[in-house]
Amino acid sequence: MNATVAVGRPDTRLEGADKVTGAARYAVEYPVRNVAYAQVVQSTVVRGEITAVHTDAALAVGGVLAVLHHGNAPRVAAGVDAELYRLQEPTVHYRGQIVAVVVAESSEAAREAARLVRLDYDEQPYRTELSAQDPELYQPAHINPSLPTDVVAGDVDAGFAAAEIQLDLLYRTPSYHNSPLEPHASTAQWHDGHLLVHDSDQGSASVRDILARLFELPPEAVRVVNTHVGGGFGGKQYCKVQTALAALAARQVDRPVRLALTRQQMFGPVGYRTPTIQRVRLGADRDGRITTVVHDSVTQTSTVTEFAEQVAVYTRNMYAAANRRTTHRLARLDVPTPFWMRAPGHTPGSFALESALDELALACQVDPVELRLRNDTMIDPESGKPFTSRNLAACLHDGARRFGWADRNPTPRSEQGGRWLYGTGMAGSCYPARARPATASAAGYADGTFEVRINAADIGTGARTALWQVAADTLGVPSERVRIQVGDTALPRAELAGGSTGLASWSWAVVRACERLCDRLAELRGGVPAEGLLVEASTHEEVAAQATLPRYAYGAQFAEVRVDGETGEVRVRRLLGVFAVGRVVNPTTLRSQLIGGMTMGLSMALHEAGLFDVRYGTWANHDLASYHVSSNADVPAVEAYWVPDEDAQLNPVGVKGAGEIGIVGTAAAIANAVHHATGVRVRELPITLDKLL
Ligand code: MOS
């Protein structure tokens, strides 16, 4: 790269003013002539067959254009994604499954009519309760994204039996719901056999591919635009059901159709984080050196399609141990299919392992920070290869110093003031630093300006701004002379904002395209043709060459809580995280990602829980009034810092991705602090007051 001027600068988002003035358009906000509105109808039984659909009352509502159901909807291809195969068959696989779609002239008419659609069902018995004793638990062929189900090294039985300290602990986490601010929403329009969709998703290229297969079109006949996306947290990866149904409805009524799920409808049919049951066994010597670690997990999937959350994967790479086993078992239940949610696997898995390490620290009487340092390793325990970089120790040291950890009295329940009990706790953090191939183009113009194009997705992270900074530095020009376009399948192909791969993947292609343009301009000795000069570059080969290196971002999280000794009320007073996430492109947007993740982790520790009623096969809470997320008064002080983290084996910019690591370990740090305050160990989230009294 040329002289750095933009990378490292705390720029505010390029689209910030558009967003706060309402000029930025989201999926159902584009003005579209003759647009109609769709509203979905959900099944009221858990499992069965639809025997009749009564639509007369709905069709009698003024302005209603159609009621689509399995008996009359256009056909789509089978075998693409079973959760998108809706209105194609009478089968109900879970309560809340979308079984009909009403289309009307207004959203109000559609909503009123949807209420009047009646279905008869032939109900069948169902199973919805997750249990580690379920005799039908099974071992999937692999876990997400395509990892081995079980990994075993050494002799865990002998290692555990021989260990001086033995811990055998059971942790549970409930289901969680992504529920981003913008709901799952799409506007679909057909023109001459071409499909145009304005969509709220985390990557329009995969949405385009799936729609093309679903409607049996060549990919170039489908365009998906996601210029602005109001959050996703994993729940908008790939094509979701509302996109497919908007396209289906638009085809049926031969008009553009808008479909935005309501907040309530987002609790189920578009995915959620599976509940988990995790058994962790730690064997260690008296100095806290782990000799044996066993992490066995049980989660759920649906009968529709398999989703196997990689819960114990965190334990495969985080700390050293000679004897290791991680396993995943699944229950196939009559429930909606679980899906990705921020730091899938690592979030629930780190709650269990980092809580267990705190229990080990107490059992060995070793300081929790020191315990993690003693079990640190520069060699990936799973692959046996050296990590490309691992600055966990730096995060632990820096975090302890900033937090004031050294002053801590390790004895639980040792600090009280009035009715309040005070405590501190900490945990490690880690998330893979991966990249996916991408293509970008760069254009230079005679007026001295440049334009960079890549189908990246900015789901609110600031990705667009960071890429613009990278482009300016690579081109060696002031950023004011650079324009950037993202969020449209008409742009060069890139993959989704997910798995913390976005900035690493996209900036790699942007750098290569800008370098190529600089080379071409140098050949032309600065004489840009009147029509401009456009080049494109792809990273497929470079990315593939580095795919097998063990590359991770790390962190250390510290929490201070106070607990009301009389009521059990828990308040987090302070959260502090220090992270090693590679090179920092934009400190403002990086900090936002980190404190956002930590806040979500606080929410997981104290507030969030899908209250699943196994009798009715659905959640009792399915809106943001009853599904509690932490709000301003719950989050008094969240601090995020980072340490230098050079890694020449990552990508040209040296970024590791920071979208997910902020939530990894946070809940454990808080649970550990609650234990320190009260002496009560809560192994089942959330930490509600009833568990402390
Ligand atoms: Mo993240 S759950 O990979 O969008």
UniProtKB/TrEMBL annotation:
InterPro entries: Ald_Oxase/Xan_DH_a/b, Ald_Oxase/Xan_DH_a/b_sf, Ald_Oxase/xanthine_DH-like, AldOxase/xan_DH_MoCoBD1, AldOxase/xan_DH_MoCoBD2, AldOxase/xan_DH_Mopterin-bd_sf. It comes from the Bacteria. Transmembrane segments: none annotated. SMART domains: Ald_Xan_dh_C. Keywords: Molybdenum, Oxidoreductase. Residues 21-125 form the Aldehyde oxidase/xanthine dehydrogenase a/b hammerhead domain. Pfam families: Ald_Xan_dh_C (PF01315), MoCoBD_1 (PF02738), MoCoBD_2 (PF20256). This is Xanthine dehydrogenase. It comes from Micromonospora andamanensis.
